[in-house]
Amino acid sequence: MPVAKSELPFAETSAGPPAKPCPICGKPANLATRPFCSKRCADVDLHRWLGGVYTIPVADAEAENRDADKT
After folding, report:
1. What is the rounded CA–CA span in Å between residue 53 and residue 43?
2. Collapsing DSSP states into helix, strand and coil, what is residue 48?
3. Left (φ > 0), alpha (ψ -120 to 50) or beta: where does 26 sit?
4. Is 30 within 8 Å of 41 (Cβ atoms)?
5. Which residues of 38-51 are buried (b: 16+ CB within 10 A; e: fewer)?
6. Residue 69: in which H helix or E strand, if any?
7. What pLDDT digit, counting tens, does each position of 33-66 carry?
8. Residues with Cβ < 8 Å from 18, sequence gap 6 or more?
9. pLDDT tens digits, residue range 3-28?
10. What's the predicted TM-score (pTM) here?
11. Dihedral of the alpha carbons of 18, 21, 23, 27, in degrees to the nearest 10
């Protein structure tokens, strides 16, 4: 039974559509460090994650309840 292309690991799908650019610097992505172009850009992204740069702002539910009670 043939395996669907989407189930193959990255290394086996290199013949597919062209890679998207690196999200950090915009250069073409490297197969070994996909989706980044280099280890350096991968490390920059990791540092951003660990530093809390990639956060989703969340409204505090308790603060919303207090604001609703005041009106």
Report:
1. 14
2. helix
3. left
4. no
5. beebbeebeeeeee
6. helix 61-70
7. 999 999 999 999 999 999 999 988 887 767 666 7
8. 28
9. 555 554 554 455 666 668 999 999 99
10. 0.56
11. 140
C-alpha 19/C-alpha 31 separation (Å) is 8
Question: CA-based Rg of the chain, rounded to a whole angstrom?
Answer: 20
Domains in the chain (CATH in brackets) are 18-70 (3.30.50.10)
- The answer to whether 11 touches 31, Cβ cutoff 8 Å, is yes
Tally the residues of the chain.
Answer: 71
